[in-house]
Amino acid sequence: MRFSPRVAPTKCAVFNLLNNEVMIQKVQDIHEMFLVNGVTSKADTSSVLIGRKYARQDELGTTFAVTVDERTIVDETVTLRERDTTDQIRLPLSQLVGLIKSIVEGSESWATVSSKFEKVGKQNDDVVTVQKTPRAMFSRPVKNIL
Questions:
Q1: Considering the domain boundaries, does residue 88 fall inside one?
Q2: Strands (E) located in 9-106
Q3: What CATH number corresponds to the domain at position 110?
Q4: Quick check: is 131 in a domain?
Q5: CB environment 10-35: b (16+ within 10 A), e (fewer)
Q6: Which tens digits make up the pLDDT trace of 69-114?
Q7: Which of 30, 36, 47, 123 lies 20 to 30 Å from 132 when distance is taken between CA atoms?
Q8: How many CB atoms lie within 10 A of CB 48?
Q9: Is residue 127 part of a domain?
Q10: How far is CA 98 from CA 21, 55, 135, 141, in A?
């Protein structure tokens, strides 16, 4: 279901990548940070795979998903995923709420914002996708390694 970020019932979901107490606490902290700043959010600390968590929130029309992972604990950055494009960026936790509020309010677009941060999970030009199945995508390098 597609909603403009402005009218989406839930603006952001917050997930943990691993079922670990430190990550679960960080998810709760981020969720509270959103609520204090007037951004509707949902925290999901279940042990379900991250893809299923994304799918659940996509079906509900949630615009953004924040993922807390091992790197978050080390450098205070998170992964932010946008529902319609499924593009992901890595950004500092300190900029997260302001960035989401600016997109929801319409003062910035996802395209503008995503160009300012490190992209996550994109294929590069040195890799060719060989086969896509419902469960996986198989790739190989363009150039022979040997």
A1: yes
A2: 12-16, 41-44, 64-68, 77-82, 88-92
A3: 3.40.50.800
A4: no
A5: bbbbbbbbeeeeebeebbeebbeebe
A6: 999 999 999 999 999 999 999 999 999 999 999 999 999 999 999 9
A7: 47
A8: 13
A9: no
A10: 26, 25, 35, 39
